[in-house]
Amino acid sequence: MKKIALVIFRFIGWGLVASIGVPAAGITLATLGKIKSWHQFYRLITFDYMSFVDSLEAGGAANDFFIALAGLAIASTIWIVLTYKSPARTPRIIASTVFAFVAFSLVYAANHTRVGQVPDYIRAAPEAQ
Question: What residue intervals traverse the membrane (predicted)?
Answer without folding.
Answer: 7-32, 65-84, 93-110
